Amino acid sequence: MLLSNEQVKNLLLHSGQVSQETLTSLEEFAKNARTPLQEAAIEKDVISDENLGILVANFLKFPFIYLAKTAIPENIFSIIPERIARKFKLVAFAKTAGGILLAMVDPTNKELIEMISKKTGLKVIPYYATGRDIENTLQLYRKDLQQTFDDLLKREVGENVEAQDAPIAKMVDLLITYAYRDKASDIHIEPEENDLLVRFRIDGILHDMLYLDKKLTERILTRIKILSRLRTDEHLSAQDGKIRMMVDDDNLDLRVSIVPIAEGEKAVMRLLSSHFRASSLLDLGMREEDFKKVNNAINKSYGMILATGPTGSGKTTSIYSILKILNTREKNITTIEDPIEYRMKGVNQIQVNSKTNLTFANGLRSILRQDPNVIFVGEIRDDETAEIAVNAALTGHLVVSTLHTNDAATALPRLVDMKVEPFLVASTVNVIIAQRLVRRICESCKAQVYIKKEDLLKNIPQDLIEKHFQGGDEIPVSQGKGCKLCHHTGYLGRIGIYEVLQMSESIRKMVVDKKDSDVITEEAIKEGMTTMQEDGVDKIAKGFTTLEEVLRVTKVERA
After folding, report:
1. Residue 8 CB neighbour total at 10 angstroms
2. What is the pLDDT of residue 401?
3. Residue of higher predicted confidence among 281 and 212
């Protein structure tokens, strides 16, 4: 790190954004986690990456640039070769009459600036940018995957490619590396009638990335089976395995699933990496008012924190962000998960294993004998798990878990349906976070467009439109035009839309009286809860996402 922990501490303290008490807790966390104070501050939601970057830049007396909000012309970006940019963490983002503007993690490095100036023949004007911001922007160097594979095959075996001659090991490694750099969550390898199709799930949406010769299918699948220690002679039954490998200095775990389909065997690889889990709740898009409610629940030593939503809504990511805040040396945190998506230092993580009868319920019973302070149950799936989790929360443990319900209020009657007594639900649940993930508009190609008010009214209640938008019949909103950085989709990355229900005395009474979720929702809104729909509309108005994205994940239309 460019600044020492002491310097970062003084910066945070003198900024007025962080109290001495928070700073003391942060220092302890950084020491135990063996992470620089600058990284710890972002992980613990003490300050955003951008705001901390501004403080560091001012301290160094260099101008600050936040590349995530900067459109970079391709001809400028490509002035610096990829090898140099990745090695020294720098990005050329603009060019003026005075020279080339260079975003650097260390703008004080005069030797590096001289070297770049000599190589490019241009004067270098250094700017400070955060390491995270530069890492994300380096995706601009990405080449087309199809072209890369075609070039690899030509280079290795010439124009006439035969399936038995293809460099399969290199191809599989390249596939995983590209998926990792594209921040894909899954790789799908699907044999079709005439081709082998490779698709990446990026920001929740599947994209066709690559077509290969169908004859390569068996060799590629065999390579994946070898890496994940599966039977290579089994082609008619489903198999599950794991791969662990290093990609760009990061430990990457891949969960592998292979199933027989009509055209052969299909493989899906889920990428699980600490690189993807470094977000804080504020970075994920949670409003400050909602974060305060969650923080109040985190600071209690008992009770339940629940995250709800369908599969792929980011529940586990939010829970990990909460666990990072809770993870201090004096706490014993134990989890039971399926699968363990992210390894955390200082946390005891248990993997569900049906073969040994290590279920959520059985694992949870064992955890209670391990003297825990905080328990994370990956998912409350059945009555038995619900009962044990609620009793654990009642007997002085902080229990964090996930449920599959559509909104926050529905989680309460859902627990009652799982045969948990209503008074126990009312006594133990502290806060419920309901969420969805929407794709974020790409900052590099963001543009303003206008939507007719009457089109908005078809999907959004009038009171929300009047509250969050200004203007007449045509309302200005943002949209991505599509560029190389975002695969020409107009979106890059995702952001959460949330509703956070904090349990109050009146809501606890409603749960005991077995009121339905609509009545509970109405009361929560009266008490200041922002619904997911309103949070989505707010993020449209602020230019974070689009109407289409909010409607895609909420499916809420005006009655």
Report:
1. 26
2. 96
3. 212
